[in-house]
Specification:
By secondary structure, this protein is mostly helical. It contains 23 helices and 2 strands. Strands 1-2 form a two-stranded antiparallel sheet. Helix 2 runs parallel beside helix 5, helix 8 crosses helix 9 and helix 18 packs antiparallel against helix 19.
């Protein structure tokens, strides 16, 4: 046992290793293993009690950390040597009896007598926490980083429970409280500044963990920091007036919104809270798009304005989705759902879109590329709407354009039909294509009719008839009345066309529908007779005949 004492105090032993090993071997085979095993435990305890009673163990600051670490390191080296010396004892006694190996025996004594002692343990904890706080304040001295790192490694080697009880649990608790206090100060400077400071704090804690804390603490440290700085203030971050999410959306703060998105992505439910605020903003913005009709503002203008403003809102949402939310699928779904609700809550949404497209296909002045873009963006809205209801509205507008000849061009109409077919299928556009085909066939038939009349020499008594041949059941319109009263001369002109058309077709019936066409009547009001030269002295001026065109 004296040899073990010499090893502990790091003295040169007079006996050789072989002799010491042989003595330990004989002790075991003489059935004194229990005495030898517990004797080592007692001897290590006595050594540590004498050592910890010294003045140096009661010093403060990094000196304490260095002394404890050095003592542990010396004991560890000594126990390595003792473990080799008592290898036979460990093999034949400790292992079969499920006791600690010789090395762990010494380390456990160190743990219980030094680290877990009320005096040294509490002082060790306070010193570690104090030094880390100094580091956060930028006041840590050279070499103190190493002292913290070595102490953490020592505590981990003594067991994760030791590390947690002596340091980690209290460290995380104080970190949380520290950043709760810091967050209150940061919030006074506004949300953009707060986000920047939080990002800096988290980066500093990550560097601190990598520099001198144990790797197992890093994830817990960052989680606690994020909880104090982010999760604890999520509602404040997104709902602060003149700084929060609604303000960022309203003022197109794409970069700032991306910062808060990235920040809230760090904590649980962060994206949910942010998305809910975005949806609330969209709902409010959507309600503002609905402008009631007034005496000075027609419903058609309101419908146009609604779609134009809605498309502008969608452009902004696309900007945020790409630049702020990184195409996040969750945000895409939430925004799409909010947009759908805005449209579904406005009963005129389908008609508004049809009016908007009707205006673009009638107004002209758009290049092919611009028209393509307008129609493509309209399809984005159509994907959200009820397509059957939209078709009903669009069919009425298409009929009006075709019959009144107000469409920009046939190519533009065909482009829109192509978009609808791609979006909704060929069955959806079948009757729309038939309508366009009817107009084209009617144009050809009217041209052939004029040639026929010119060739036959017949007269229509000044009536220029142009008949649109519409397939029954395809075109929208009011029911044809049983009895129609039409002036004789226009009716004779129509009968002439009917006879011509039926002579060119088989099994067809041509019925006049006065509600789907127009009539242009030219009226000439006779003026005064032209006066002779001798009558030119009359003061009253000459009034020539006046010509008026009446379209009904």
């Amino acid at each position: 046992m004296a040899a073990i004492q010499d090893i502990l105090v790091r003295k040169q032993c007079e006996l050789s290793f072989e002799a010491l090993y042989e003595n330990a071997y004989l002790t075991v085979i003489q059935r004194n293993a229990d005495q030898l095993y517990h004797g080592v435990q007692i001897m290590v305890g006595t050594y540590l009690r004498e050592k910890t009673g010294g003045v140096m163990f009661h010093s403060g600051g990094s000196n304490l950390l260095e002394i404890v670490y050095t003592s542990w390191q010396e004991l560890r080296d000594s126990m390595d040597m003792i473990s080799e010396l008592l290898m036979y004892l460990e093999e034949k006694y400790a292992v079969p009896n499920e006791l600690d190996c010789i090395f762990d025996l010494g380390m456990n004594v160190f743990r219980d007598l030094v680290i877990k002692s009320e005096c040294i343990g509490n002082q060790l904890q306070a010193t570690l926490l104090s030094l880390i706080m100094k580091d956060r304040e930028g006041k840590l001295k050279f070499g103190e980083h190493l002292a913290i790192k070595q102490t953490c490694s020592m505590l981990i080697s003594l067991g994760s429970e030791v590390f947690q009880d002596v340091f980690e649990a209290k460290f995380l608790e104080e970190t949380f409280q520290f950043y709760i206090n810091q967050s209150k100060k940061f919030l006074l400077e506004g949300i953009p500044s707060y986000i920047s400071k939080v990002e800096t704090c988290i980066a500093e804690e990550e560097e601190r963990a990598d520099a001198f804390l144990h790797s197992s603490t890093k994830s817990k440290l960052i989680q606690v920091t994020e909880e104090a700085l982010i999760q604890h203030h999520m509602e404040t971050l997104v709902k602060t007036e003149n700084n929060g999410v609604s303000w960022m959306l309203e003022n197109n703060k794409v970069v700032e919104l991306n910062s808060i998105y990235t920040l809230l992505n760090r904590v649980q439910d962060g994206h949910r809270v942010l998305a809910e605020e975005v949806v609330r903003y969209l709902t409010d913005a959507g309600q503002e798009l609905v402008t009631p009709s007034t005496a000075d503002r027609s419903q058609r203008i309101n419908d146009l304005t609604f779609i134009q403003n809605f498309l502008h809102l969608m452009d902004r949402l696309e900007l945020f989705l790409e630049g702020s939310f990184n195409r996040d699928k969750y945000f895409d779904q939430m925004i799409t759902g909010a947009v759908e609700r805005v449209l579904s809550q406005y009963p005129r949404s389908n008609k508004c879109l049809s009016v908007y497209i009707d205006d673009k296909l009638k107004s002209g002045g758009l290049s092919d590329a611009e028209l393509e873009d307008v129609l493509e963006r309209s399809m984005v809205i159509l994907r959200i709407l009820q397509t059957d209801e939209f078709k009903k509205e669009y069919k009425n507008h298409l009929a009006a354009r075709l019959l009144n000849k107000t469409s920009t061009s046939a190519d533009a109409e065909k482009l829109m039909i192509c978009k609808l077919k791609s979006e909704c299928g060929s069955l959806y556009t079948q009757d729309l294509e038939r309508m366009i085909n009817d107009v084209m066939v009617s144009k050809t038939t009217n041209r052939d009719f004029k040639r026929h009349m010119k060739k036959s020499g017949k007269s229509l008594d000044g009536v220029d008839v142009c008949v649109q041949i519409l397939t029954s059941g395809i075109w929208p319109g009011r029911r044809i009345p049983d009895r129609i009263t039409i002036p004789r001369i226009p009716y004779q002109a129509f009968e002439e066309f009917r006879n011509f058309y039926l002579s060119k077709t088989r099994n067809r019936i041509l019925t006049l529908n006065p509600f789907s066409g127009t009539a242009e009547v030219t009226i000439v009001l006779c003026g005064e007779e032209r006066r002779e030269e001798e009558d030119m002295e009359v003061d009253e001026p000459y009034r020539p005949p006046k010509k008026y065109n009446l379209v009904v």
